[in-house]
Each structure stands twice: as structure tokens, then as C-alpha cells.
Amino acid sequence: MTDVRVPTLGESVSEATVATWFKKPGDTVVQDEMLCELETDKVTVEVPAPAAGTLAEIVAPEGETVGVNALLATITEAGAAAPAPQPKKTEAAAAPQPAAQESKEVKMTDVMVPALGESVSEATVSTWFKKVGDTVAQDEMLCELETDKVSVEVPSPVAGVLTEIVAPEGATVMASAKLAVVAEGAAGTVAPPAQAPAVSPAADVPPVTGKDVENAPSAKKAMAEAGLSADQITGTGRDGRIMKEDVAAAVAKPAAAPVAAAPAPAPAAVPRAAVSADDASREERVKMTRLRATIARRLKDAQNTAAMLTTYNEVDMSGIMELRNTYKEQFEKKHGVKLGFMSFFVKACCHALVEVPEVNAEIDGGDVIYKHYVHMGVAVGTPNGLVVPVVRDADQKGFAEIEKEIAAYGKRARDGKLTMADMQGGSFTISNGGVYGSLMSSPILNPPQSGILGMHKIQERPVVVNGQIVIRPMMYLALSYDHRIVDGKGAVTFLVRVKEALEDPRRLLMDL
């Protein structure tokens, strides 16, 4: 027998109330699995199982006040000692004996939300690839999470059977939250049938409560004294359980509920216009993905915050096209990557940013941060939306390094494998709408950056060169910039320097 005792509760705390038991006598428990929850004046304490085995007896029931080191329960450890307590149980109920022995080998493993990346605290469960009862192999993909920018696949930590899905599709989960439970090993195949009896007693429970967690005893007492109902209080305890401090907070701010309720209709302030039944039957409503919602929010924030202005110019692409045609085969043979146009634009922008550093800066409160490096964001279109991976220290890299990084980012973006680290820290962005046939557009800033260059379609047009009308491959360029930090002179100068470097790439070599 192993005793389960009240742990140390903290300095100057000598007693606690048993709030909830998560197990009942006869249940199989694994080491460190939560058995019960204690409530002190200030905190909630979870009590784990000190050993694996069967919960033999609960000494301190829910609602009882216990002191430090008091006996809460006893556990019959798995192994040689396991059969000993079994005869004691047969007097009351002989049936549970084989069930306990059968499930003894099953180890339940929680599937948790993995690390989502710096500054990302939540995600949406987009797809479950498995359903309850399915057999899973270790590292097999169970589900896919969607954050503001990337998709994260969640593999199974062990081989076994998926016994429970805690967070269904569409649910928003916090970092390190529980997603599912897998019954580990071959014995896991017993887990799905064992799930059925657990569900059936719930049918006998009246559905009136709408909540299957028990509020803390001290919270019930405090609610009765304050004349409040559970519906008026938001619980912060485990699974939404109302704690004593939740009641105290509600009593301290009695007017908070009606005031908070007033703004609730705001999202519906501009309702969608009514449509006919015929039109409605031919429409499809799809929930906006977190990525698309983030793109919308960030772009609108940029319009609302920055004093955004766009200046235009055009560039004759003859020089680059001639240089590229001359060396593309040798370039690919030596470096293993194709020579595209993007590396020329990245190098031209890095060259121009040296002369006009404010385009590479950002505003932080009342300060301007000038960056003595260029982390070049390169916008990439994916089936899920626009993402902007960053080529770090692009000003210190050659054409081959830049082309390799852009190609690798493009592949990872199409496969949904970009990480948060890939898209953070950009200081300037290039967006190429020309690949989709755009002739001219005004790109929107990628905050907190102060500049973004828009590339467009290369189109042959008549232009005047040395007094003669000739046909040249021309491209319109657009620089959108934050007028709060970049003056018109600086923006025009930047775009002219980019144009000069592209029309005569030798200037890049000569640093002119």
C-alpha cells in the first residue's frame, strides 16, 4: 500500500479543502496522474499519484478540510501486491476485478500542443487525421494546428489507440494545452470499449446543469453568502471550475457584468444584407482561417496607423535579361540553382537602402530605429494566403546564396513547412505581383516596416532612347512608404537608385 498525503501547501498555509476527486476507488492510476485537487485560501493544488496501481480507498472525501501531510487516500501498487487488495473488493463488487487486471497494462499518454513559436500563444485545431478508436503509430500525424502564420502538425508521442479527442476541429487551444489521449501499447486496443461505460452513466445525469465540473466547496459557500449564481461568475479553475477568488472578484465589481454586456452587439453593428433563398442555396460559408484573418488585420492596421504613400517609376529590364541569358547556364552548373530576377532586385534594394536608410528603419513610440543590416522579406503566395519569409543579412550575401534561400523558402511555403522564425525580423519587403500578371499596383506596408517594393509584369513597350523610339522590356516599380519617417525626396531617391542598379547591373559591382 502507498499513502497519498497532502503536499506542502506553501508558507503560512496549514490546511486545505478537498475540492475534487478525479478518480474513484477501484480505478487504475499511473504514476504522476492527477488524483484530486485541493483548494487553499489562495491557490489550487493538484495532488499526483505517487505510484502506479489501483486507488484502494479515499480517506478524505470532497469538501473535507485537511492539514499538511494528512492522509488523503491509499494506492495498491501494481505488481506482486496487486492481487492482495482484490479479495477485499470482491465482497462489495466482484465484477470490477477482471476489469482492473485487464486495464492494468494500459498507460494513457496525453497529446499536448507543441511549441508554437515566439510570441504565439494560441492556435486553432484545423484538421484531425484520426478519430477516436483508431490505431496510431509513434510519430504518425494526429492533427494539424493553424496559427496566425503557419500550420503545425502534431505527431503521436507513442504507438497505441486514440481514446479521446479533447480539442475538436475549430477549437482554439493555448500553448501546451491538452489535445487528445492515446492508450499506449498493444493493450491500448482495450481502451475504446472501456470508454463506453464511462459515457453511459452520464445519461442518468440530468442535463439541466449544462456544466459537468463541480465548483469548489468554498466557492459555493461564498456564492450563497453573496447571493450570486454560478451563471454570473466566470470560473478560472480547472475546466472552468469556479473558485473562491472568482466569487470575491465578482462581488468586488458588481457593476462589471452589465457594463461588459453592453458592447457585445458591436460585432454585428454592420449586418450582412439579406439575400434571397435562391441565392442563399448557391452560397457557401467558410470560416476564415487564422492566417487569412491575421493578414486582413495586419494590412488594415498598416493603413490605419502609417501615413502610407506610393511613388512609381519604370525600369528597362534589357540589361538584366541580357546578363541573365549570358550566364544562367554557368550559374546553375556551378551553384545548383537557377539565376532568377529576384536576386537582382534584392541586391539593388540593399544598395539603395545604404543611401536612404530611413526606408529600412521603423518607428517605435517616439523613437526611430535605424537598422545597420538588411533582413529582406520576400512575399510568397501560397494556397492559404500571402506569407513573407525573410532572407537575413541579404546585404552581406551573394546572388547564389540569395537565390538558394528564396528557392528553399518557396518550397517550404508551398508545403506549409515555414516556421515562425522564418518570417520574423524583416526590415524591408519585396512583393512580386508580376508573376500573376499584374501591370501596376500599390503594395501595402508590412508593419512595422517603413517600405515595400512592388515588382510587376515585364511587358514590351515603345520607349524613347537617345531620341529614337525602340521596343524594350519594361517593368513598373512601386515603392509604398511610411510618410511619417520617409520624406518624398528619400522615397524617390531610393526608387531611382533601384532603377539605375537594375538598368546597369555593373553599378552593383562598382558600388555606384
Automatic annotation (TrEMBL):
Protein family membership: Belongs to the 2-oxoacid dehydrogenase family.
Function: E2 component of the 2-oxoglutarate dehydrogenase (OGDH) complex which catalyzes the second step in the conversion of 2-oxoglutarate to succinyl-CoA and CO(2).
Annotated GO MF terms: dihydrolipoyllysine-residue succinyltransferase activity
Quaternary structure and partners: Forms a 24-polypeptide structural core with octahedral symmetry. Part of the 2-oxoglutarate dehydrogenase (OGDH) complex composed of E1 (2-oxoglutarate dehydrogenase), E2 (dihydrolipoamide succinyltransferase) and E3 (dihydrolipoamide dehydrogenase); the complex contains multiple copies of the three enzymatic components (E1, E2 and E3).
Single biological process term from Gene Ontology: L-lysine catabolic process to acetyl-CoA via saccharopine
Domain of life: Bacteria
Stored Pfam families: 2-oxoacid_dh, Biotin_lipoyl, E3_binding
GO cellular component: cytosol; oxoglutarate dehydrogenase complex
Organism annotation: Paenirhodobacter populi
Record domain Lipoyl-binding: where: 1-76, 103-183
Domain (Peripheral subunit-binding (PSBD)): residue spans on this chain: 214-251
E.C. number: 2.3.1.61
Region (Disordered): 82-104, 191-214
Composition bias type Low complexity, residue spans: 92-101, 191-208
Entry-linked InterPro entries: 2-oxoacid_dehydrogenase (IPR050537), 2-oxoacid_DH_actylTfrase (IPR001078), Biotin_lipoyl (IPR000089), CAT-like_dom_sf (IPR023213), E3-bd_dom_sf (IPR036625), PSBD (IPR004167), Single_hybrid_motif (IPR011053), SucB (IPR006255)
Pathway(s) where this gene product acts: Amino-acid degradation; L-lysine degradation via saccharopine pathway; glutaryl-CoA from L-lysine: step 6/6
Catalytic function, reaction form: N(6)-[(R)-dihydrolipoyl]-L-lysyl-[protein] + succinyl-CoA = N(6)-[(R)-S(8)-succinyldihydrolipoyl]-L-lysyl-[protein] + CoA
Protein's name according to its UniProt entry: Dihydrolipoyllysine-residue succinyltransferase component of 2-oxoglutarate dehydrogenase complex
Top class in the EC scheme: transferase
Cofactor(s) demanded: (R)-lipoate
Alphabetically ordered keywords of this record: Acyltransferase, Lipoyl, Transferase, Tricarboxylic acid cycle
